[in-house]
C-alpha cells in the first residue's frame, strides 16, 4: 500500500522485513555515504530508468515468466517465445544457441533473472 506524501516530496511505502534486512546487509557492505532511505530511493529510480531504456533498446522483447530454471521472453520481431536458461554457469538462449545474443542480454537486464540464481554453481 502506497502511503500519502507528508508534503516533503517523499512517499512512504512499507517494505517486507526480510527484504529490508537483505537491502540493509547490502547497504552496509558497500559503504555508501547516503542514508539507507535515499539509497533505496536511488535503486527504485534506477529501476525506472532501466525499464525506460529497455523499451527503447529492445521494444520488441517482453518478459513472460520464469518456470523452474527457465526464463521466457516474447520476441515479437520473430514472433516466438524464447527460452533463457543457465548453461555452464552462463545465461544461455536456447533459440539462438548463444550466451551473448539480444535475448540473453535482455534477460540479464530483467530483475526476474534473480529467480535463476539457485541454478548457478558458486564454485565456478
Could you walk me through the main structural features you see in this protein, from its secondary elements to its overall organization?
The protein folds into two domains: 17-57; 61-119, no CATH class. A hairpin with a 2-residue loop joins strand 3 (80-87) and strand 4 (90-93). The mean pLDDT is 90. The chain is an alpha+beta fold. A four-stranded antiparallel β-sheet has the order 1-2-3-4, covered by helices on one side. The chain is globular. The chain has helices at 17-30, 36-57, 102-109, and strands at residues 61-67, 70-75, 80-87, 90-93. The longest helix has 22 residues, at 36-57. It contains three helices and four strands; from the N terminus they run H-H-E-E-E-E-H.
Amino acid at each position: 500500500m502506497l502511503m500519502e506524501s507528508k508534503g516533503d516530496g517523499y512517499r512512504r511505502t512499507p517494505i517486507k522485513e526480510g527484504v529490508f534486512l537483505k537491502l540493509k546487509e547490502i547497504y552496509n557492505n558497500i559503504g555508501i555515504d547516503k542514508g539507507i532511505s535515499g539509497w533505496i530511493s536511488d535503486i527504485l529510480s534506477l529501476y525506472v530508468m532501466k525499464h525506460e531504456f529497455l523499451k527503447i533498446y529492445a521494444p520488441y522483447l517482453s518478459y513472460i515468466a520464469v518456470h523452474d530454471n527457465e526464463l521466457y521472453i516474447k520476441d515479437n520481431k520473430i514472433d516466438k517465445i524464447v527460452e533463457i536458461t543457465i548453461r555452464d554457469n552462463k545465461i544461455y538462449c536456447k533459440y539462438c544457441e548463444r550466451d551473448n545474443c539480444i535475448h540473453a542480454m535482455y534477460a540479464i537486464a530483467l530483475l526476474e533473472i534473480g529467480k535463476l540464481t539457485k541454478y548457478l554453481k558458486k564454485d565456478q
